[in-house]
Amino acid sequence: TKHQSPIPIIITILFPWHYNNPTLFLVKREAAIESEFMVSAQLMLLFLSSAGIRRAVCGNGPSFASAFLTKAPLAPSAAVSSSSAAAASAAIAQSWVRYQPLRGTTVRFMSSTDATEEKTDEEKAAIKAAREERKAEKERQKAAKKAKKAAKAAAEEAANRIEEVTYLSVSEEESYAPFGDMSIVMSRSRSGRDFANAADIGGSDDAKIGPGSKVWLRGRLNSIRVKGGSCFLVLRQNSFDTIQACFFKDKENPEQSAKMIKYLKSLTTESMVDLEGVVSTAEVRSCSIQDAELVISRIHSVSKADAQLPFLVEDAARSEKEVDESQDTDRPFPRLGQEIRLDHRWLDLRAPANNAIMRIQSAVCQLFRESLYSQGFVEIHTPKLIAGESESGAGVFTTDYFGTTACLAQSPQLYKQMAISSDIDRVFEIGPVFRAENSKTRRHLCEFTGLDLEMAINEHYMETLEVVHVMFKHIFENLET
Are 247 and 228 in contact (CB under 8 A)? Predict the structure, then answer.
């Protein structure tokens, strides 16, 4: 041969049984010389002796492939002669030469019945219209399915939505949902609810509000814990009084109980809530009210706090010693600096210790007044924006007063003396004092609240000491009680 590799000729016959006319595919992998092809074809035809080959050579079948598919018995006269084999070889060779330009490609032979007539424009238009109709129908079904799914989702959302509650009157309470955020009332009415103090609730019979009593409480949500079908929360009043409230899933009304649990989960700590419940005896060590709790029947959020706060009141309430000791543990407590506390002073003052500072200040001023009132003093109010310095020994803050320099009062001393000279023998004042005293520390007396008193002495300065002694004794004794 003229080629280094053999010349493979692959004849692949596909039998699509669901069609009447099978298709014959002739695949050439490599070009061949006509003489070599003739020899190979003759050897192949002489080697094959099946009924299909004999029938194809004799011309008894409609096509080469159909000769293998027919089940008709072979006639005795269908013997393969040398002249018939030569004719078949010549036919195959002619076909080979005809398709030489298609070397390296797949050649498909089809029977005459496979050819289809060219469709008319009307038929093509009808086919296109049918295709468009099927496509439109699919789009309609898809849109209907999407709309059905959206309607189902909207129905589920509406069923699970928790609407706001507009509580206007106790007499209409049964028509209100037992849970939900409270809408803005805008002073449209006074509901008639009587809010109680947590400190008045107790588990004993001698408590002001004892077991079995139904009360309304308003306070901040100190903490909440929801697990399964139960919920425990702690309500805080006045930064000091805390009481536990609980809710358990009702088997008789599971749907409403599930909604209540869902609403309780949505509440955030430090939110202001209104809670109605029945007092029940309990042992609660984590609250200031340790012998009673509330079984929740209604709860509404009046003002919901942000879920993420600058810091927790619980962290602000810890002492420096407690924070230092926790630094070497697996869960150290956060250290809150003075800057973040002052930036969020409204939150820092909710800590019991910091809140107590304000309350002690108020009590001191109240007791100071009470003592001096009882000893014949008169309270006065002196100016704090003055033309000059009140005391020469202390620094003064100056400011512009319509083109004139003014000073912030360092002391009400001058005005107290003027009051004594005005025949008011005993005067006092509680007011701000400003001192421009530069200091290297963060805590210095640039501004403070002064408690000043002035009195006329009849004979001896001990008269003043006696007044001050009575005043301090009254303050300290009553602070403890």
Answer: no
According to DSSP, the β-strands at 23-28 and 9-14 are antiparallel
Q: What is the pTM of this model?
A: 0.65
Query: In whole angstroms, what is the distance from residue 289 CA to residue 293 CA?
Result: 8
pLDDT in tens, the chain (481 residues): 444 444 444 443 344 444 344 443 333 334 444 455 555 555 555 555 444 554 554 554 444 444 444 444 444 444 444 555 555 555 555 554 444 444 444 444 454 444 457 888 888 888 999 999 999 999 999 999 999 999 988 888 877 788 899 999 999 999 999 999 999 888 988 999 999 999 999 999 899 999 999 999 999 999 999 998 999 999 999 999 999 999 999 988 888 999 999 999 999 999 999 999 999 999 999 999 999 999 999 999 999 999 999 999 999 999 999 999 999 999 999 999 989 999 999 999 999 999 999 999 999 999 999 999 999 999 999 999 999 988 877 789 999 999 999 999 999 999 999 999 999 999 999 999 999 988 777 777 889 999 999 999 999 999 999 999 999 999 999 999 8
Return d(Cα 287, Cα 293) in angstroms, integer: 10
Query: Which residue pairs from 466-469 have beta carbons closer than 8 angstroms and sit at least 24 positions apart in sequence?
Result: 467/372, 467/375
Residues in the chain: 481
